[in-house]
Amino acid sequence: MFRTVISAATAAGRYLRSNPSELGRAALGAIGLRFGLPVAALRWMIHELAKVPGVKDIVIEAAPPGLRLGGSLKMMDTPVRASAVIYIDDIRLSGEEAYVDIRIDQIEVLPTGSQKTQLSALLLTGALDLSRPGDLLAHFPGIPPLIREARGNHFRIDLMRLPQLQNNASIRDALGLVTSVVTLRAVETDARHLDVVFKLLPRGYAEAQRQVQENVLRPSLALARSFLPEPS
């Protein structure tokens, strides 16, 4: 762990020396609640820290406003080179809903070996339509419950289906409180960065005030009264 921290700090220092403008960009971005991570840093983290089992030659590139991911892997006993561009079209977070809309585009899957398989035949002849992965997934058995919708090349990930949120009203209330003050608005790229963008008071000041009253002030007053002696 210590070696990893030292290696990360060394890589970060080397990157900042080569790109001093990053500090100014970070300062300006913070004013607008936009926090960017260089795609080069993300690429370094994936290669050094997050080894993906069975996937080699991982490629991570900005494809504004999306992110291109690629790698070599084996699918149905067929070695392939796969890539796609992932876009996050919408994010909604509150105490009542929490979902992310994802769009997957420019999907390419090409066999890399000479071995003939059923999958390689489908890929090489174009008989397998890769432009609508949602339609394909919708007909698969055992779709993960987090995927609420899969249609065309769009997917809706419903975080409210997580047991931690679904079965815990306190966590939902806390999420509603936090997201009434500041919420995640977008995740997008430019030519060199992956930006996470937040928004203050997304549902207005009145909603933030209501959430604070219901989830902070009233419980605090109720707790304080519980310690007071009963009137005689």
Question: Which helices and strands appear, and what pairs or packs with what?
Answer:
Layout: H1 2-18, H2 21-31, E1 34-38, H3 39-48, E2 56-63, E3 66-75, E4 78-93, E5 98-111, H4 118-125, H5 133-138, E6 147-151, E7 154-158, H6 163-166, H7 169-181, E8 182-189, E9 193-200, H8 205-226
Antiparallel strand pairs: 1-9, 2-3, 3-4, 4-5, 5-7, 6-7, 8-9
Helix pairs in contact: 7-8
| Low-pLDDT regions | none
**Order of strands, widest sheet:** 2-3-4-5-7-6
The string of secondary-structure elements, in order, is HHEHEEEEHHEEHHEEH
Assign the structural class, choosing from mainly alpha, mainly beta, alpha/beta, alpha+beta, or little secondary structure.
alpha+beta
- In round numbers, the mean pLDDT is 90
How big is the Rg? 23 Å
Task: Count up the helices.
Answer: 8
The tally of domains stands at: 2
Q: Largest sheet at a glance?
A: 6 strands, antiparallel
Q: Give the beta-strand count.
A: 9
**Which overall shape is indicated by the principal axes computed on the Cα atoms?**
globular
